[in-house]
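Exam prep: given the inputs below (a chain plus zinc ion), describe the expected output before reading on.
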Amino acid sequence: MTAARIDATALTRELLAFNTINPPGMERACARHLGAILEQAGYKVEYHEFGEARTSLIAQIGDQGSKAPICFTGHIDTVPLGAAPWTHDAFAGETDGDRMYGRGSTDMKSGIAAFVAAAVELAPHLARSPGVTLIITAGEEIGCEGARYLADRKLLDRAGALVVAEPTANYPYIGHKGLAWFEVETHGVTAHGSMPEVGENAIVKMAHVIGDLDRFRFPIESHAVMGKPTLNVGTIRGGLNTNSVPDEARITIDTRTVPGIDHGHLCRSLESLLAPRGAKVRKIVDCAALYTEPSNEWVQRVFEACTPLLGGRPQPKTITFSTDGADLKRGFGGAIPAVVLGPGEPKLAHQTDEWCSLERVGQSVDLFRTLMLDWQS
Ligand SMILES: [Zn+2]
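Solution:
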């Protein structure tokens, strides 16, 4: 087998042409396009659908000896375009100097193009080594559905390390906080607004709930790298008209957690805190924290590989957004080191006129090639 070469810029443009806006996602055609490229290069490719046309793919190459492969992952779905008009076509991959525009250019089709380009080029070499696994997921933007499906159905084989190619401008982050969203509801008894004393006001109950939440303390106050866990009341709804006593009110809460805070335990703590108010608590979104100690030997090698590019050794930091990484790590048995590292611009994720830097994409291909080769030695 001779080495094939793929231009990561051209591949990013090809991927942008697939409309994978989630909802509804519809990632099948994009996944099949990548699968065909990888199959051609000698990869064994499997497709897994968690819903109609909601396709993730796993591509694997290597001899599966005693050392597990290194895994690279990215999601092919994107967020919607938003209400503001774009000045560039969101699906054409238009370039202007170093920038390529398009929905998903930064988050994160350029990251996928970079690891696929490196993986295709190295395929003949990787075939005789511990190898590489690529996991390209559908449905990340709404609750990591694709990654969760792969982990829950035990469809993941094994990996020794994980690179999540989300947009970090090629800075290696050692994880992110967890995210747990809750809905809280209070109920009352409706009555005419002129006679509130005969009703029971659900909004007043909710006001007390919010007071209780304001005083809530997490079991772990702070983490050495991630800082403090947080709680935000994001929405509130209640009441139908001004001249009635409301019999129902709802809020949603966004918590961002640090390693050591179990989301099931957090839910039970909130339930018992709010039970005296008669409030019901339901967990609606759950994504675990991702964290690897900076002293980990492979993390240090990643830092080493990034140093020339960054003009200095990276400091241990975590990124603000969450990723598929936590679910995939769980699917791989939970003990592997992981970094979040990709060519996109973190500030441009989900923005109007999203773009990626083509120079960074080229640097990312080199970096991923280095990490893939380093793993085989
Ligand atoms: Zn993303």
